[in-house]
Every structure is written in C-alpha cells, then in structure tokens.
Design goal:
505 residues; mainly alpha; two-stranded antiparallel sheet; 2 strands
Length: 505
C-alpha cells in the first residue's frame, strides 16, 4: 500500500471543486434515477459516458461512480414507499421496507436504508483498499463448476422465503426457473418457448419481472381496495413527517452491527464474482439474515433487520465489483462493464499492472467511492422528509402516476414495446399469486438465479466433456454443494419443526 499516493489522491478528489461538483451531481442523479422503477444506475452511467468524454479523468470518474452509488440506494426509495423496486438491488428491501411504510414508519425505513447503505459502501471500500489483490486471486480460481454450486446453494434458500406454505413457495420458485429458460439457450442459442415470437428470443428482462410482480400487482390490489382505506395508511400521513435524525435510535443501530457486517461480507464476496451482482446479493443476504434471526417469523412484517440486510449487501457489492474490475480487468456486473469501457477510453487499462502504471487513478477511484457515499448520505438526510410526502398524494392520483413511470421504465430498459406488455403480464401473474396467498419472492429468486445456474452448468459440461463428477471433484464446488445439501436438510427440518410447534399450540 502506497500511503503517500493514497493521501495525495484523496486530496486531489476532496480538494478539487470540479470533482466535488461532478460527484455530487452524479450521486443526486443516481438517487433520482434509481427511485424511478426501471431507470437504473446502469442506464444513468450509459447516458452520461458520452458527456464525460470532454472532462478530465478524475472528475469523470467522480461523476460515473456517483451515479453508480446513488442509483444503488435510489431503488430502495420506490421499493419502500410504493412497493416498486427501482432496481434489482432493491428487490429484498421492499419485503420489510414496504410493510414498515404501511405501519407509518416510512421515514424510519428510508433512514435505516441510507445509513446501512453507507455502512455497506464504506466496508466494501475498506476491502477494496486493503485486500483487493488477494480477493481477486481467489475469485479468478472460480470456474463454471463453482458458480453453478453457489447458485444451487442460493436456490435452497427458497425454503426460507416460502413463509408458511412450503409447497406454494416451491411452486413459485419453479415458475421463476421456468421463466428464466424463455429465449435463446446459452452456448448453442437454441430458441425455447418463444412460440415463434422474435420478441421472446431475448427472454424476459429482470426489471420487467420485478416491477410487474411487485409494483403492478400492488397497484391492482390497491385499486381493488381503494374504496376502503386502511388505518395504517392514515397513520403513515400523520407520523412520518416528524423524523428526528435518520428516524431510528443508536440502540437499534448497534443492535444491527452483526447483521451489517455479515451482509457486507456477502455483498463483497458476491460482488467479486463476475455476473452475480447486487440483484443476487441482496436476496441472499436477506434470506441468511432471516435464517440467523431469533425471530424469523417477524421477517416480512416490517422490521429493520430485513432492510439492513438488503441495503448493506447491495451497496457492499459496489466495492466488490470494482475489485476484479481494477485488478483483473473483469467487470462484475453491467454497470462496472460500462466503467471499464470509460476507463479504457481515458487511456487507463485495468489489470494486474494498473497499480504500477496508474496507481494515482486506483486511489482516486477509492476516494470517489468514499465521496459518493458521503454525498448520498447528505442528499438523503435532507431529502428524506420530502420523499415521504409522496405518501400524502391521494391514491387515485398516485396509482396512475406510478403505473406510467413503471411503463416508461419498462420501455426505457430495452427500448421495445414488448417489455410494456410483459410488465402488464407479470403484474397479472403477481396479482393472481398474491390473491392465492402464494409467496412471490421465490419466483424472483428462481428467475434471477435460473439463468446463471443454467449457463454455468452447460459451460462446465462443455469443458469437462460431459463429466458430471467434476462438480464434486473441484474442491470449492464440492464444498458449496455439500453446504447446499446441508442447507436443504436444515431448512426442511426447521420448517417442519415450526409447522409442528404451531399445530401443537
């Protein structure tokens, strides 16, 4: 570690007015884009890369990283307030964030989210600064066998997300896996379940599925019950505008430190692995937090534990994705792929030699991540009370507006009308599932992990000439499969005991 270079790079970032301004605008734009369902940080970075061409290197890095960090949190705003995850990274946030909003604690949910988003970013930054080369060396040893085993382990957590009805949870999980197979198959590009439609060749976009299942279904349910407003809605309007600080106590903050550290480690670890990203890390962190909790039955009813787990993990993924980006030149997700392109266009080639050839750029990136997280904290501290005022808007006005924003976001994702129709379809699917008391979260987990699992399964078999035993003989893969088997047995046993205790009671 070159401490003098680190200090000078931080000075160049924090002492430069242009860098400060660009990073602030990036963080603000990222928060606003993330809050609109479908308008992700990836889209923001893609739109502003051409704008950054005429800038110096450091201000352009500040702008793009500001959007990245801001957008990662921004998705939680709509997830908490209107049950519409602005980004895949906020898919688990709404599971407890929205129930808190319904109980009149929207301000508290937003405050918890931003503080622990900040904590996740800072912890990932420490990992980025201290152990990036070592972590990258571990990550490069992961092949398709290891990725497949990790996704198998993650899928076992569907049992935890199935709430009280295991059978219904498994059904929705299988539906999610089936939806992930629509389109061109990986490796050989065989068309599957497209029914002759070219629009289905690309499969379903994750944001379309997320927003449809959660947001559009919520709009339909709210419209169905609009003639009988709940007491919780009335309470929300009364209580949410007297927020002190971030809306929660120091005691609550310190009680969540173990949850925060565990979730940050999950986010960093999955961020390092290319192709996994925040869409998976927040779901995995949430389910592990639920498994480790003394009161798992409270998850999904509106407790801060779920918000902490999701928001810490998805923001920790930011630092995690930057580690292989800088040390190996391998982007961890779509946003970091755009950042890779931006760095190359500026004449900086990420890889093992970047610390020697462009050390000042590496440390400037560290500083820009820290600055972005500080600005994000600042923006939300002063903007939080304004965001909760959305709840004062009467439902007859709010619901059509949310629907329009969802449709715009769906179209803007891939610039095709098909995604708008798909959004409506998944909205109806989500509505029917919720009316039948089917948990919807396993569907999302199955859909997100299904494509990753299939791709790496087929890659592994291609590399090994169809030898299935290599999933076991590869040490890391074998360990994860063993953990998956243990997790499956343990979760089934825990679920059985919980059901039996309720019958006895």
């Amino acid at each position: 570690m070159n401490w003098s270079l680190l200090a000078s790079s931080y000075g160049a970032v924090f002492g430069n007015v242009q860098v400060l301004l660009m990073t602030f605008l990036g963080a603000l734009g990222g928060v606003l884009l993330g809050a609109i369902p479908g308008m992700t940080a990836t889209m923001g970075v893609a739109l502003l890369i051409p704008f950054s061409f005429g800038m110096d290197l450091i201000p352009s890095i500040g702008l793009l990283l500001g959007i990245y960090c801001g957008g990662m949190y921004g998705g939680s705003i709509s997830a908490i307030l209107i049950h519409a995850p602005g980004t895949p990274a906020a898919a688990a946030t709404l599971l407890d964030g929205y129930p808190m909003c319904q109980k009149g604690q929207a301000g508290k949910a937003l405050g918890v989210g931003i503080v622990f988003s900040f904590m996740g970013t800072i912890l990932s930054l420490l990992a980025l600064v201290g152990i990036s080369p070592a972590l990258a060396n571990i990550a490069i040893k992961f092949g398709p066998w290891e990725y497949f085993s990790i996704t198998v382990f993650s899928l076992t957590l569907i049992i935890t997300l199935s709430e009280e009805n295991l059978v219904k949870g498994l059904i929705t999980g299988i539906i999610g896996l089936m939806l992930a197979t629509v389109g061109l198959a990986p490796i050989d590009s065989v068309s599957r379940y497209t029914f002759g439609s070219n629009a289905l060749n690309g499969g379903f976009d994750i944001l379309t599925v997320l927003v449809g299942v959660f947001a559009i279904s919520e709009i339909l349910l709210a419209a169905e019950n609009s003639h009988k407003p709940s007491a919780s809605q009335k309470a929300t309007v009364i209580t949410d505008f007297n927020i002190k600080g971030f809306g929660f106590s120091l005691k609550e903050f310190f009680s969540q430190i173990p949850n925060c550290i565990r979730s940050a480690l999950i986010g960093i670890g999955l961020g390092i692995l290319p192709g996994i990203g925040s869409g998976t890390s927040n779901m995995l962190s949430y389910t592990i937090a639920k498994n480790q909790s003394k009161h798992p039955e409270k998850f999904g009813t509106g407790i801060i534990d779920g918000v902490v787990a999701s928001e810490t993990a998805n923001n920790a993924t930011v630092g995690g994705t930057i580690i292989p980006l800088l040390t190996l030149g391998i982007p961890g997700d779509s946003t970091s792929a755009l950042l890779l392109g931006a760095l190359i266009m500026k004449g900086v080639q990420p890889g093992p030699l970047i610390f020697r050839e462009h050390g000042e750029v590496v440390y400037a990136i560290y500083a820009a991540v820290a600055l972005s997280s500080l600005f994000m904290l600042f923006i939300m501290f002063f903007g939080m009370k304004g965001f909760v005022k959305i709840l004062k808007v009467p439902q007859p006005l709010l619901l059509p507006l949310v629907f329009v924003l969802c449709m715009v976001g769906a179209y803007g994702t891939n610039n095709r009308i098909f995604d708008c129709w798909a959004l409506i379809f998944f909205g109806l699917v989500g509505y029917l599932l919720r009316k039948g008391n089917f948990p919807t979260t396993p569907l999302i987990l199955g859909f997100v992990l299904g494509s990753i699992m299939e791709l790496n399964f087929r890659r592994a078999l291609s590399y090994s000439n169809g030898n299935y035993m290599e999933f076991i003989t590869h040490p890391i893969s074998g360990v994860f499969l063993a953990i998956a088997l243990f997790s499956l047995i343990f979760n089934l046993y825990t679920h059985h005991k919980r059901v039996q205790s309720k019958k006895t009671a």
